[in-house]
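Sequence in, structure out. Go.
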Amino acid sequence: MQRNIHPADRCLRLAAGVASLSSAVYGRRQSALTRALLAGFGAMKIAEALTGFCPIKSSMERIGNPGGTSMQAPEWAQQAAEGAKKVARQAADKVQNLAQQAVQGAEQASDIPIPDEVADFLVDSSKRETSDEDNA
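Output:
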């Protein structure tokens, strides 16, 4: 087994494992399933920290580069980042357009005068005391 975890990462995994395991043992009001999941997660993180090997990280590295193909992990990661940037730009443009439409709609709505009867009702209802019917 070859180590694939950095020493700083090992310390963080050990801390997370101890915290999770202690929460499973000393935690309050937890179901049996929650306690079992916390204990399993904590034990797994402690084992990873002690051995310096993470099987999930090893599997992900093999998936990213199956059989030494030409597309290396940094390359596919860069392509994924470019795709994410494109989607984020499109979403930001859409949000900006919606915000402009909302501002225009608010400006148009503010030009419409409120009838006096509605204004009087709003003022009167704010001064009135609450009754049992209001709470129903």
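Check: The CA atoms of residues 96 and 102 lie 10 Å apart. Residues 1-65 form one domain.
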